[in-house]
Amino acid sequence: MSARTMSLTEELVARCFRAVEDTGPDPDAAHLDDSDYEAMVDALEAKLPATEPLWLFGYGSLIWKPEIDHVEERVAVARGWHRSFCMKMTRWRGTKDQPGLMMALDRGGQCKGVAFRLGDGDRRQQLDKLLRREVTLKPTSYHPRLLTLASDSGPLKGLAFVINRKGTTYAGPLDEDEVVERLATCCGHWGSGADYLYNTVKNLEQRGIHDRHLWRLQHLVAERIAALRG
Hints:
It is a single chain. The chain is an alpha+beta fold. It has a single domain (26-228), classed as Roll (Hypothetical upf0131 protein ytfp), CATH 3.10.490.10. 33% of the residues lie in helices and 30% in strands. The protein contains seven helices and nine strands; from the N terminus they run αβαβαββαβββαββαα. It has helices at residues 10-15, 34-47, 61-64, 123-134, 176-185, 193-206, 212-228, and strands at 30-31, 55-58, 70-89, 100-118, 137-138, 142-151, 156-163, 187-188, 191-192. Strands 2-4-3-6-7 form a five-stranded mixed β-barrel, surrounded by four helices. The protein has a two-stranded antiparallel ribbon with strand order 1-5. Strands 8-9 form a two-stranded antiparallel ribbon. Strand 6 (142-151) and strand 7 form a beta hairpin. Helix 2 packs across helix 4 (123-134), helix 5 crosses helix 7 (212-228) and helix 6 runs antiparallel to helix 7 (212-228). It is globular.
């Protein structure tokens, strides 16, 4: 763990928890079907030679909850993209009445995260599983893209999920106060925004990755939670 001490603690995060019933998929939303996933897998396979390993780029929850079988991980940098709390969540870590926020990669800057190398099994099956985990609605808010990542061991191609600003859950540019307020107050059946932020920052720091923007956010969210529930 880094020598830095986080302001956002497990105790403060616990104050944000509340039991939320999962309302299930939005009946008013259009969901991707099998043919949509087939087309996305086809497009990705066409861009990634079968002789190259398949990497997945994690910048948020994938770092601490990858839910994929992988055989190697490397710290890697995606240039031209940055972490942004720009995805509105009416399920998972928020509700329709009180939408939460989660991160996506948005244009500009750079992002240091973790690249996971998937095993040499059935690539099509692995891609299908990842897409079904990350992408559900039409028009999708997440675009699967192959990015060229920089690492200490040289460049590699990694699958990343970047924001589609025309997608159904794009929250638009939000000011810092709005982001802090939502992270400090919103919760869904998967947990709170504060929990998501805490685990992301903690796991980045454990890998020697210090994101100054997220570090400032965790401090401000901690202050807001303390003020709300002091």
